[in-house]
Amino acid sequence: MRWDRLFDDLEAQLAAHTRLELDAEVAERTRTERSKITLGERIAGGVGARLVVRVRGGSVARGRLDDSGDGWLLLVDDGGRQQLVATAAVLGVSGLGRPRDDTRARRFGIGSAVRGISRDRRAVAVIDVDGGTTHGTIDGVGADAFDITEHPLDSPRRAENVRGERVIPFAAVALISSS
Fold first, then answer.
1. What is the pLDDT of residues 75-97, one digit of tens each?
2. DSSP letters of 136-164?
3. Is pTM beyond 0.85 here?
C-alpha cells in the first residue's frame, strides 16, 4: 500500500514537471513569434480601429485606420478628413489592440500613396518631422520626394493664390492631411 502511494506521488511529480516544461516552451514560442511581428504588420491588423498616433514634431493624428502599406498608414477622422502618416515619424500608437497574424500591409510604399493624393488635386497640409506645416497642392511625386505648390488651404490653386513651390523629401514627412 505504501509503495502504491509512493509511486502515485512520483508519477504526479513527474506529470507536474512535464506540464511546467510544456508551459515554459509554449510561452517561449509565443514570445519568439511575437518578436517577428513588425509595426507595419501590427498596423495592418488594426484596420477599422480608432487610433491616436503621435508623430515627430509634436503632432497627433486621430481617426479610424482605413488602410496601411509599406511606410505609411491612412486615418480618416470623424469629419471624413484623411491623414496619411509616415510610419518613420511615428512615436507611438494607441488603440491597436492585440496583434493579428492573418493580415498583411500593402506592399506599395509612401510614394505611391502620395501619388494617389496628388491625383485628387486637393489642397493638403504637410506636417514635417520638426512640426513645420506647408499648405498647398501636390504637383509631382518622385522616387524620394514630392513637389508642392504652396497656397492657402481655403483657396484654390490659382496663380494669384500661389505663394511658392517647395520640394519635400519623404523622410521629412510626419503626416499629410487632406480636407
1. 999 999 999 999 999 999 999 87
2. EEEEEE-SSEEEEEE--TTS-S-GGG--E
3. no
